[in-house]
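pls ignore typos typing on phone
sodium ion + seq
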Amino acid sequence: GCSTSSSNNSKENETITLKLATYVPVTSQVYKYVTEPWMKRVTELTDGKVQFDAYPGEQLGKAQDMLKLTRDGVTDIGVFPANYFPDNMPLTNALAGLPNLSMTSHQGTVAYNELLQQNKELLETDFSKNGLVPILGHVSPTYEIWTTKKEVRVPADLKGVKTRTLGGVANEVYEYMGAVPVTVSHTETYEALEKGVIDGAGYSSVGVEASGTADLLKYATFPHIGTAIHGLVVNEKVWNGLPEDVQKAMKEAGQELVEQSGEKYDQDTEAFNKEFSKTGTIVELTDEEKGKWEKVTKEFTEKWLREQGSKDFPYEEVLNQYKESLEKYK
Amino acid sequence: MEKLKKLFESMDKVTSGISAFTLFLMMVWIFVDVMLRTFFHRPIQGTIELTGEYLMVLLVYLSLSYTHKQDGHVKVTFLEDKFSKPIKNITKCITNLFAACLFFFISILNFQEGLEYIEQNIQSSGVLSYPLAPALFIISLGMMMITLRLLLECISIIFPNKVISSNSLADSEKKITG
Amino acid sequence: MLTLGIVLLLLLLLFIGMPIGFTLIVVGSLGIFLVSGFDTFTGILSSTAYRSVNSFTLTTIPLFILMANFISKSNIAKDLYDCILKWIGHVPGGVGVSTVFASAGFGTLSGSSIAATSIMSKICIPEMVRAKYKDTFAAGLVASSTGTLAVLIPPSVPLILYAVQTETSIGHLLMAGILPGILLAGLLCAFIFITSIKLNTKIEKSSWSERFASLKTIWPMLILVVFVLAVIYLGIATSTEAAAFGALGALLIGLLIKRLNVKSVIESLKDAVQQTAMIFTIVIGGYIFAYFFTLTGTGQSIISAISESGLSKWTILFLIIVFYLILGLFMDLIGSMILTLPLVFPIIQALGFDEIWFGVIVVLLLEIGLVTPPVGINLFITSKHSQVPVDRVFYGSIPFIGILLLTILLLVVFPQIALYLPTNM
Ligand code: NA
Ligand code: NA
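k done
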């Protein structure tokens, strides 16, 4: 971007203005709890030396172009989910899409960032190869099953249920359990649920809230089918041109958010679930029913890993390390 | 020159034909998908992705040049109508050259992007795994064809006796917007 | 300064006859290059072409256009108009009111203002002139109201584009257009009736047997409407998917009543892809130009200037309405919408206006733009079919533009007119 040049020859006190682009709107949790506080904190830590021009809500490009736009330097910094880029960020995409891993946003975020510090392969495959430097990765609250009419207690109940999914690995999970995955655009979800074109949707709690479909959904079942993992990433060239103190401030601001952002997200989730319980039912699963979900998700994960066998990525190693980290922050 | 133009026109016929067929296919495909979903709970996997990722691309980009031939791209004419014929020709040449330069550039960029898609093995966002690079090449082709048409139009304005203008000035109702 | 230069270049190229979509692409790209340099320029140009068409939701546009083409080629709209004339053409104002009814009826099948105007001006204006309406009155009525009814009553290309661009619910937007459409039709009928009393405009009365006979000619139209609505309301398909049902239905009916053959089907397909390519060229150009506008920061400074101006929300809304009326003088509907929404929509959200309601308002405002000189496509089309000079068509449209403005005023005062159906159904 144009600002890179100014950062390259910047002297000590010159301000550096960086472009930050994301597809999420300013009202979303990813913006309120991750993006905005991070920018604020960086500016604060550098005594105002670093300023940001923020372009939220697809102002600089569509969601599916966010990685490219950051890599090509259209924006200096990008915030986007790995889920949209399975081919560019295969490892993070797998951690995001596979079922029954993190329980909360806080747990997932802390564990993922620990992994990012420790696992060189993850850093190399998902970020360095794409010309990106990660500041932090943010794991959303889990995606669950929300239905309009049918109470889903065990995986078998999903048979034939037309469910909106976001594609990717989660799609395969639903298919494995016998659901009919239907991709419906954001603008059409309400209508599709209302008319019965779909019977349910895979959403996080705050996702239900943001989509405005809460009044149509009657049941929620929580087997934790995947998450969204957002990266806050800097273009590598831009990063290398930044003074060391700025780099340090950016990393520091990122680390500070690892704990906070997840907690706030989880609070919103709980608040929404409480609100939802007034008009709908959050299905209380017995231990036996829980076991059935755990069994089927475990089977799926094993099958999925087997299928990836031929590809060159260390899925299993990264997954196991992520699980270990998750165990620590339970 | 005349031969080249003929070759181009027949190629244009083929691509716009594919475009029209794509629209027909899209209509039938979506209908069948909905029927299968409603009555058999078995939608055609990947319909939503494939229609956006490929059918829309074929439909729009392979008919860009044909649309220009039919004078189908809507424009502001109230001032242009008052121009004399020579001035009209000059403005047409200028605007055509401007647009041709940029469309040529977009064509190249999309071709390169397609190569990059191959390199990174970028695949469909849906459950079906098929590569997306060809879609970028289709865009590149469509952009190249509109570039050529704009240039040919310029040439036929500059050398009017050599080339018979094939532009059938379409009725204004063909310019359909909202 | 740069922004101003680019905008002036945009106007210059538009006025010397460069296609609107091309102009937006060329000028927007140049602007991006000048503001943000070569990397940004190539980065945006290599992704926008793909991303602006890569959407399932957008398939509804070519498919609804295709449906309208099939209907137009099978003369179904003409049958509808003739039937309505037989029933009410003999009362004062009956022919004019028939025109409104037929326009609204055709609007249930066409989502494009200009397609509707071009078909109905061929069919209705000669009949109205025969019934001793002034040609300016007839042309003005068709130019200003036929297209507006087509885009208010679902399906509607502009409302779908609005939904896609602002990420609002398509279903809600389409429903929000229905009552304003009916209101507009009512106001038009009332106006025509009042002005017709002294003009004594009517045609000869048809016999009852003729009337009932004419009903038999409109069954294809009725079946198609019922079929599309049934598909949507029985939950078989979404409004997007319904377009495929509509197009296929129109094709089958056309073949069944032997008004379509292979040749006319191919013609309909070719016309539809051409209209689609035209619309998407503008959409792509609109995106590129909007990115340029974003990168200059002009948009954000306008928004912050407005939010810090201390003006009341109603004053700002008034200014936005005036802005769209001025824009409509020069630009076409889809181009203006794509170009301005990234800037205007956040303001509307920030002021707390309803997003669905605003979509209906914008579409109505820009429809007025289609009948105002210097650039008014519906004006040109109507003029061509009625042989009435452009300036006289505009003169004839003035009272109807007044009615459109009255409709907008009523919508501002009573937002429930737009919001009742989406919130209660
Ligand atoms: Na309509
Ligand atoms: Na106008």
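The two ends of chain B are 39 Å apart (CA to CA). The mean pLDDT of chain B is 85. more later
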